[in-house]
Design goal:
The chain has 406 residues and is an alpha/beta fold. It folds into three domains: 205 residues, FAD/NAD(P)-binding domain, CATH 3.50.50; 87 residues, D-Amino Acid Oxidase, subunit A, domain 2 (D-Amino Acid Oxidase, Chain A, domain 2, 2-Layer Sandwich), CATH 3.30.9.10; 62 residues, no CATH class. The protein is 37% helix and 26% strand. The chain is built from twelve helices and 18 strands. The strands form three sheets. Strands 1, 2, 8, 9, 10, 11, 17 and 18 form an eight-stranded mixed β-sheet that branches. A seven-stranded mixed β-sheet has the order 6-5-13-14-15-12-16. The radius of gyration is 22 Å and the shape is globular. 43% of the residues are buried. The chain binds flavin-adenine dinucleotide. The site of flavin-adenine dinucleotide has 39 residues, from α1, β2, β3, β12 and β16.
């Protein structure tokens, strides 16, 4: 093994979470020595619906403003104003906001821009380098081993490898496979020259025939381009492709399919721990992805912002990395924990519903309530469950139980 220079922070993975961690560390401490290792030959989108809610930039405060002002308009391809929910019986519920609430990104360009910002700030990005695992001594990670056999030494190691979770699982010697109840297997087409009726609204298709334990999506990237995909609960479906092919036929959008890609999304509850001594994980690797819809870009950026902020401070003040990473974990739990738990329970509930129950719930809520459903307070949830109970008492009781409101 050869030895290379020491870094303050070594980040494995240049997705949204890894890049945000690197940029946030340097944003809060210009002098930090930060290295990102990326196993692919270039940074960029592999497979993603490319939706991003605007609220994430607000949650990141000054850092969010900084990022937003450095991301060119080309990163944000299409503004979104809401959702059309399509129920199993074909009924459409249109939930439109007055102001735009997010975008369909050009995620490839978005990530390449983040990488450019990171490098401009003095960060080091190494492409085509696979981090095969942490190098441990007495349960402390003091570096990363690469596929070339190099040992890169760092004061802390950050696993931002997405759902592969290759670094922390190796450090903790975890061999059990991930629970397939909490995984969605997805397939997506990118389509050009097609017909879209409402290019400013995303479309979500529910139903156990369309997508068991998941949903189908149509995300417009403009007037005649869309991302069309299906995600199904891995424990219920072996092969998602037939579902995607049937969904595509039903949609009848015309146009040309320019790419076909499969992938997985995590829909876990937040773990008890995502830091261990001087090793931490962030983004999809730390299971920050929203369990209801599988959106992980925003949670990855946010997690990276919080982690980078704490790391920068610790490096500046020469504080203990172990204590710093605990602060990061505490802040994530404080800011996202309760909401994430609620989303996880709601996801389990959605996956337990038959199509009739789904329709009863949808028909009991106004479009405006659907727009706010991700952020319901207990009181709002109770009010809606009251309405549902009048139609179907058993379903009302089921909702109360699943959402832990009893
Ligand atoms: C079909 C599909 C559609 C989706 N649609 C959306 C959507 O519309 N909106 C949304 O918000 N989210 C969506 N997601 C989820 C989203 O893409 C991820 O949750 C998000 O990208 C997670 O970011 P991350 O940085 O944690 O991980 P990733 O984006 O997975 O990045 C991890 C990076 O680490 C690299 N890497 C992995 N292992 C190693 C290693 N050992 N050494 C070095 N590098 C390594 C990978 O090459 C990759 O670049 C979708 C996912 C799929 C599969």
């Amino acid at each position: 093994m050869s030895f290379m220079p020491e870094y303050d922070v070594i980040i494995c993975g240049a997705g949204p979470a890894g890049l945000a961690t690197g940029i946030s560390t340097l944003f809060h401490n210009k002098k930090a020595k930060v290295l990102i290792l990326e196993s692919r030959e270039e940074v960029g989108e592999e497979k993603c619906g490319e939706g991003l809610a605007e609220e994430w930039f607000k949650h990141m405060k000054k850092f969010g403003k900084y990022l937003r002002s450095n991301l060119k308009p080309k990163c944000f391809e299409n503004e979104m104003f809401g959702v059309i929910f399509i129920l199993p019986n074909g009924e459409r519920i249109v939930a439109r906001e007055k102001k735009s609430n997010g975008w369909l990104l050009n995620k490839d360009y978005f990530l390449k821009t983040l990488a450019a910002i990171f490098k401009k700030m003095g960060g080091q990005l190494e492409l085509g380098v696979n981090a095969v695992g942490p190098v441990m001594k007495n349960d402390i990670a003091y570096g990363v081993e690469t596929h070339l056999g190099n040992l890169i030494r760092g004061k802390c190691v950050i696993d931002a490898t997405g759902l592969t979770q290759s670094i922390w699982r190796k450090a903790l010697k975890i061999k059990e496979p991930i629970d397939r109840n909490d995984i969605e297997i997805c397939f997506q087409y990118k389509v050009e020259d097609c017909k879209i009726e409402n290019p400013d609204l995303i479309q979500i298709y529910f139903g156990n025939i369309i997508a068991p334990g998941g949903y189908g999506w149509v995300f417009p990237k403009g007037k005649n381009r869309v991302n069309v995909g299906i995600g199904c609960q891995a424990s219920r479906v072996k092969n998602v492709l037939p579902y995607q092919e049937r969904f595509w036929k039903i949609l009848d959008l015309g146009g040309r399919i320019v790419s076909k890609k499969g992938g997985t999304v995590a829909t876990f509850d937040l773990p008890e721990n995502f830091v261990w001594s001087n090793l931490a994980c962030v983004g999809a690797s730390a299971r920050f992805t929203n369990p209801i819809h599988g959106g992980g870009t925003g949670p990855g950026l946010f997690g990276g912002y919080i982690l980078g902020k704490h790391l920068a401070n610790a490096i500046k003040k020469k504080e203990s990395i172990e204590e710093t990473l605990k602060k990061y974990q505490d802040e994530i739990k404080e800011t996202r924990g309760k909401r994430h738990e609620y989303h996880y329970k709601a996801k389990n509930l959605l996956q337990s519903l038959n199509d009739d129950e789904m329709e009863t719930i949808f028909s009991s809520m106004t479009p405006d309530e659907w727009l706010r459903s991700m952020n319901f307070t207990k009181r709002e949830a109770f009010r809606i469950i009251g309405r549902i109970s009048k139609k179907n008492l058993r379903l009302g009781l089921k909702l109360t139980k699943y959402l832990g409101l009893s």
